[in-house]
């Protein structure tokens, strides 16, 4: 079940001050669980709201009461203000914590709560409106003497006006939703054609995600860092900045790995950014926790991007280095208490790193959504200084309706090196089965030399992986380690299968063999191995090199802790079949191997091979989602790269294009259809 271990004093005793008796959390998943945990520590009763498909979700089980607010689609449940207002009246909740996303930055919701005398645990409607509108927020920021990005201070009417404005500002430009956030409704354009296309997709995504299709255009700062300042302000005019978070590792403008503090900022730049963030908060009479996001160029010039008037997804890393519970602070502020701290009280203690663990396939555009049921799930909470914020458990479903986040994995250390090492260990010990996940990508990021040295920007992923993410590239030594582990695991399984309740299955058998000759297949390469055993220790000879592998060999465990040539490694055996197929998760990446006896290997060449499908003539859905538009019909001629259809998944629209110039043979989908990963969409001749 969702849980987290304290880091850097996070578990400090919460002061027994009178706040609310009952709080409704207008959200789901990990953030709902996160808010409930602090409420429990403060002695506050909680109410969960849920859609019908979330009726057995973890946040529902954790809360004292739960109310169903509608069917699965978000606009009928978690965005259904009428149903949530009814839930508040039904349960007598005195306050609402909105979490992030959904209604967290919706001024109408905050107004309705105020009209009913219910406290909104967040800023007042004026601040939400001022900062929620990117056009207005930029004007306010300018007036507050906050550095801003050059751009057009108004709403863009149509695609042609967008092209005209982009030409005046100068390419590249960023087209983004005025009411947006979270990377949705956002496109970068480098020419007129991309501006027209970006305007179309951004306005559709903005309307779908926020119910507001207004767009703005500004200069795109090429190769920047994304660094944000956490602010905390009360209703008495006091405001603090709680240091920065580095959020530059992104895909599709959505954060993947964050850390606090940043390797890039010096004390003077940090202070200047913090003071500007507080200046902006005071300009809109902000009260609650909020985040001011900046783009920072290579010369440490920083520009205001936007202010998020809510608790940020990545808030745990700030909690780790400051020791403050931000949810507790938000509740106190909503009750009218003054801030307990002065700016000089805010420390930077150690280093914290957060990896966003998603149910996504990292081999497809750095992460296209995956759905399924978690058949096995084990968080690495037995490790010291590891925190996992999650809202799922073994048996939970990752559905098409909501964000595919599994958890936020946070590690803490006295130094960055210590925190990174702990993250490596935590990712290796994180067991997730039943859905495709992005742990292979996360682990590669945190050990990459550029990331380790702090040489990062928002372009890190496309620059490091220009041809897309391919998983861990094995060195010669790592290849030998992997082959040796597979061979030793195969032998251990063979020996176990000969025994029942610790005794041999057959009373009369030949003396147990202590040496084996095996053939291991990896990446279509065959390797002859010699294996010898002494107790739990295996010596494997590969191409004249010896590899020593030892461990407990508990084949029923999800984790396989081993010592390989004196180095401790934690692997996971994802698959093992009677035909010798073994899939191992090694250094974060899954590798498929086949282990055969010498005789079986000599006969395997007679087995026919399956002919791979010609993917140039068919278009399959790369992810589960719904069809928004189909642009072709049978008999149409399409050019290579031409849009064929648009699939929406998790509120993001993805254009599917033709792999070659051809005639459309048949169309197997229509607008409004729900499709699964691998479903046939269009056939070409």
Automatic annotation (TrEMBL):
**Record-level GO BP terms:** lipid catabolic process
- What cofactor does this protein call for? biotin
Q: In this protein, which residues make up the domain named Lipoyl-binding?
A: 606-685
Pathway membership of this protein?
Metabolic intermediate metabolism; propanoyl-CoA degradation; succinyl-CoA from propanoyl-CoA: step 1/3
Reactions it catalyzes: butanoyl-CoA + hydrogencarbonate + ATP = (2S)-ethylmalonyl-CoA + ADP + phosphate + H(+); propanoyl-CoA + hydrogencarbonate + ATP = (S)-methylmalonyl-CoA + ADP + phosphate + H(+)
- Which EC numbers characterise this protein's activity in its record? 6.4.1.3
Key word Membrane present:
no
Protein's UniProt keywords contain Ligase? yes
Cellular compartment(s): Mitochondrion matrix
Q: Where is the ATP-grasp domain?
A: 138-335
| A GO molecular-function descriptor | metal ion binding
Which keywords does this chain's UniProt record carry? Acetylation, ATP-binding, Biotin, Ligase, Lipid degradation, Lipid metabolism, Magnesium, Manganese, Metal-binding, Mitochondrion, Nucleotide-binding, Phosphoprotein, Transit peptide
- Domain Biotin carboxylation positions: 19-466
- Where is it chiefly localized? mitochondrion
Q: Which residues cross the membrane?
A: none
Instruction: Give the InterPro entries listed for this entry.
Output: ATP-grasp, ATP_grasp_subdomain_1, BC-like_N, Biotin_BS, Biotin_carboxylase_complex, Biotin_carboxylation_dom, Biotin_COase_C, Biotin_lipoyl
**The protein's assembly and partners:** The holoenzyme is a dodecamer composed of 6 PCCA/alpha subunits and 6 PCCB/beta subunits. Interacts (via the biotin carboxylation domain) with SIRT4. Interacts with SIRT3 and SIRT5.
What is the recorded name of this protein? Propionyl-CoA carboxylase alpha chain, mitochondrial
């Amino acid at each position: 079940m969702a849980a987290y271990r304290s880091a850097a004093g996070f578990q400090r005793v919460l002061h027994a001050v009178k706040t609310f008796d009952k709080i409704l959390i207008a959200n789901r998943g990990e953030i709902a669980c996160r808010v409930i945990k602090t409420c429990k520590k403060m002695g506050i009763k909680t109410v969960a709201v849920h859609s019908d498909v979330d009726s057995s979700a973890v946040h529902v089980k954790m809360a004292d009461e739960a109310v169903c607010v509608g069917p699965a689609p978000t606009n009928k449940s978690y965005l259904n203000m009428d149903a949530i207002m009814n839930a508040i009246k039904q349960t007598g909740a005195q306050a609402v914590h909105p979490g992030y996303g959904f209604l967290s930055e919706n001024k109408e919701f905050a107004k309705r709560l105020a009209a009913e005398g219910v406290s909104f645990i967040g800023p007042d409607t004026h601040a939400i409106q001022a900062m929620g509108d990117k056009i207005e927020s930029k004007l306010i920021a300018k007036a507050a003497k906050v550095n801003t990005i050059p751009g057009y201070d108004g709403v863009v009417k149509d695609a042609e006006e967008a092209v005209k404005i982009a030409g005046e500002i100068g390419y590249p430009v960023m087209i983004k939703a005025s009411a947006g956030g979270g990377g949705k409704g956002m496109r970068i354009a480098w020419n007129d054609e991309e501006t027209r296309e970006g305007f179309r997709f951004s306005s559709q995504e903005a309307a779908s995600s926020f119910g507001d299709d207004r767009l703005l255009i500004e200069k795109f700062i090429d190769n920047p860092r994304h660094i944000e300042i956490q602010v905390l302000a009360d209703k008495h005019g006091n405001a603090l900045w709680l240091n920065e978070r580095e959020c530059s590792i992104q895909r599709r403008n959505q954060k993947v790995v964050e850390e606090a503090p940043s390797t890039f900022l010096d004390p003077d730049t940090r202070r200047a950014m913090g003071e500007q963030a507080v200046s902006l908060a005071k300009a809109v009479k902000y009260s609650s926790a909020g985040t001011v996001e900046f783009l920072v160029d290579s010369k440490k010039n920083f520009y205001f991007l936007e202010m998020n008037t809510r608790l940020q997804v990545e808030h745990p890393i700030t909690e780790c280095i400051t020791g403050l519970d931000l949810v507790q602070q938000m509740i106190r502020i909503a009750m009218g208490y003054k801030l307990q701290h002065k700016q000089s009280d805010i420390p930077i203690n150690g280093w914290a790193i957060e990896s966003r663990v998603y149910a996504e396939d990292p081999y497809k555009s750095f992460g296209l959504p995956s759905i399924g049921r978690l058949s096995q799930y084990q968080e690495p909470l037995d490790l010291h200084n590891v925190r996992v914020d999650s809202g799922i458990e073994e048996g939970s479903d990752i559905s098409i309706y909501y964000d595919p986040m599994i958890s936020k994995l946070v590690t803490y250390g006295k130094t960055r090196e210590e925190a990174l090492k702990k993250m490596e260990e935590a990712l290796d010990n994180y067991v997730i089965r039943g859905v495709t996940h992005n742990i292979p990508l996360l682990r590669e990021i945190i050990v990459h030399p550029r990331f380790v040295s702090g040489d990062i920007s928002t372009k890190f992923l496309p620059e490091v992986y220009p041809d897309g993410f391919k998983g861990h590239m094995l060195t010669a030594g790592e290849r030998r380690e992997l082959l040796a582990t597979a061979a030793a695991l195969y032998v251990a399984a063979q020996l176990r299968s000969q025994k029942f309740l610790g005794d041999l299955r057959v009373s009369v058998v030949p003396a147990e063999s202590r040496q084996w000759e095996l053939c291991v297949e990896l990446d279509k390469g065959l390797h002859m191995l010699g294996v010898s055993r002494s107790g739990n220790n295996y010596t494997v000879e590969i191409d004249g090199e010896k590899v020593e592998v030892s461990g407990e060999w508990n084949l029923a465990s999800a984790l396989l802790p081993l010592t390989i040539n004196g180095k401790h490694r934690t692997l996971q055996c994802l698959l093992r079949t009677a035909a010798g197929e073994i899939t191992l998760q090694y250094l974060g990446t899954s590798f498929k191997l086949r282990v055969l006896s010498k005789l079986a290997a000599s006969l395997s060449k007679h087995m026919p091979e399956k002919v791979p499908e010609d993917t140039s003539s068919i278009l399959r859905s790369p992810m589960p989602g719904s069809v928004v538009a189909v642009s072709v019909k049978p008999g149409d001629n399409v050019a290579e790269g031409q849009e064929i259809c648009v699939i929406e998944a998790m509120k993001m629209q993805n254009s599917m294009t033709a792999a070659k110039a051809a005639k459309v043979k048949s169309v197997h989908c229509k607008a409004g259809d729900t499709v699964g990963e691998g479903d046939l969409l269009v056939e070409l001749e």
